[in-house]
Design goal:
Elements lengths: L10 E4 L2 E4 L2 E2 H8 L3 E5 H18 L3 E6 L6 H9 L3 E4 L2 H9 L7 E3 L6 H10 L2 E4 L2 H10 L5 E4 L25 H13 L5 E4 L11 H20 L3 E5 L17 H18 L6 E4 L3 H4 L3 E12 L3 E5 L8 H5 L5 E3 L9 E6 L8 E8 L7 E4 L20 E6 L2 E6 L4 H5 L10
Parallel strand pairs: 4-19, 5-6, 5-12, 6-7, 7-8, 8-9, 9-10, 10-11, 11-12, 14-16
Antiparallel strand pairs: 1-2, 2-3, 4-13, 13-14, 13-18, 15-18, 16-17, 19-20
Helix pairs in contact: 2-9, 5-6, 6-7, 7-8, 8-9
The protein binds ligand LLP.
Length: 430
């Protein structure tokens, strides 16, 4: 097996060809076409169970939610619902998706940012716990009604993660409230008759440093202590957000999940006791960790251009996978039809979009590639399809779920309806 497939047991090589669970990538590409998002059901389940096991071991009173924005496919949501998780929704349609996938409303948290009045009303109408991220939203929410649980996202000042665009706390971050305003918000909620409360943060994404989570939790508990001291608010949950990272690059270390959760649990349980916080659940709502490495994007080489550099043009572009163009994010790329080929030349893998940022890999050491080769882009299960667009008037790809030797289409490729079906031409222009 290629060393590039390390830690990803659901991927294997048979006669040098890539298999996803027991299905050949070549057969998938032939049957469903490319570009194609493929997810391994068993990998998603394994990821969820790995987190759950550690939580059960160290924090008996916990809750594990899944951040839908990472991958909103209904089949992915259904797998995680069946694994016993709750759902973290970023907006009304994500609340509706969660309900459609069978999550009960007590297992849905609505934590958008910069809510409109309509957002807040939708949250109330759905009957789910609402997590606001500003004093303004708190005031408007309480004017419209009372959520079953009022929760607030705070900005504890520290953040983690190595991608610049993925820093969600500190003075430059638009997320969360400061302690002063959070205190006012909880006071208002209590006055308005809200009975149940939650406290939330989401400070960074793709964090691989095990020490980060206990440190951030300690900060959040200081907020909790202050709010508790002022108003006697008992928190149902203290939510430390998502952020658990995965190693995208071959030289990156994996996050030591057990070490991190064990240390977080210690900080949490000591703090809860010390600050007399009652018996809140420690809540976690990862997205990436659960689904990222379970997703593979299959793409076919279309054009090879030998210019000042070698450009390998594939049928995936920034409209299919935005992360490289947006964050300079790294994704491993395998030659799916010949995993044994040695990486012996540098090339840039580029898409069909009219932007020079449409480069999936720049000057990457890869095997010699030829037109019609099948490539597999790894770790695309999170923030892959969800960030896809129709830019350059291109359709979004299909999605397939693999389980053992079964492969099922779980979202059809877009077509004419999505591209022009919703447009209208005023009479005078016809
Ligand atoms: N909870 C909330 C409120 C969030 O906003 C997010 C992600 C999560 C949980 C899950 O975070 P995770 O465990 O996946 O780090 N587009 C970027 C990631 C943006 C994350 C936004 N919020 C990417 O492609 O890496």
């Amino acid at each position: 097996m290629s060393t590039l497939i390390r830690n990803r047991d659901f991927l294997s090589a048979k006669n040098g060809k890539l298999f996803i669970e027991k299905v050949s990538s070549k057969d998938l590409a032939k049957k469903f076409g490319t570009p194609l998002y493929v997810y391994s059901e068993n990998r998603i389940r394994e990821n969820a169970r790995r987190v759950k096991k550690v939580l059960v071991k160290y924090i008996p009173h916990h809750e594990l939610f899944y951040a839908i924005k990472a991958n909103n496919n209904l089949s992915v949501l259904s797998i995680l619902r069946k694994e016993g998780l709750g759902a973290d929704a970023a907006g009304n349609w994500e609340i509706q998706l969660a309900k459609k996938a069978g999550f009960p409303r007590e297992k849905i948290l609505y934590s958008g940012v910069f809510h409109s009045d309509e957002d807040l009303r939708n949250g109330l109408k759905a009957g789910v716990a609402v997590n606001v991220d500003s004093l303004s939203a708190a005031k408007r929410l309480l004017k419209f009604g009372k959520p079953p649980i009022f929760s607030m996202r705070v900005n504890p000042g520290i953040s983690g993660g190595k991608i610049k665009g993925l820093v969600f706390a500190g003075n430059d971050a638009k997320f969360g409230e400061n302690l002063k305003n959070a205190i006012i918000a909880f006071q208002l909620a209590k006055k308005a008759g809200v009975k149940k409360f939650g406290l939330h943060m989401m400070t960074g994404s793709c964090v691989l440093d095990a020490k980060y989570f206990p440190a951030a939790t300690a900060k959040l508990l200081e907020f909790a202590a202050e709010i508790r001291r002022k108003f006697g608010v008992q928190f149902e949950f203290i939510d430390i957000g998502g952020g658990l990272g995965i190693p995208y690059q071959p030289n990156e270390k994996i996050l030591d999940l057990e070490k991190s959760i064990a240390a977080t649990a210690k900080v949490f349980m000591t703090g809860v006791k010390r600050f007399s916080l009652g018996n809140p659940k420690l809540m976690l709502e990862p997205g990436r960790y659960l689904v990222a490495d379970a997703g593979i994007l299959l793409t076919q080489v279309q054009t090879i251009k030998k210019a000042a550099k070698t450009f390998v043009g594939v049928d995936v572009g920034m409209q299919t996978l935005l992360r490289p163009a947006l964050y300079g994010a790294y994704h491993e790329i395998l030659l799916a039809n010949n995993l044994n080929a040695k990486a012996n030349q540098k090339a840039s893998v580029v898409g069909p979009i009219c932007e020079n940022t449409d480069q999936l890999a720049k000057d990457r050491l890869l095997p010699k590639l030829a037109e019609k080769d099948l490539l597999a882009i790894l770790d695309v299960g999170a923030y892959g399809f969800g960030m896809a667009s129709n830019y350059n008037t291109r359709e979004k790809p299909a999605e397939v779920l693999v389980n053992g030797n079964k492969a099922e289409l779980i979202r059809t490729r877009e077509g004419l309806t999505e591209i022009i079906g919703k447009q209208k031409i005023p009479k005078h222009l016809r």
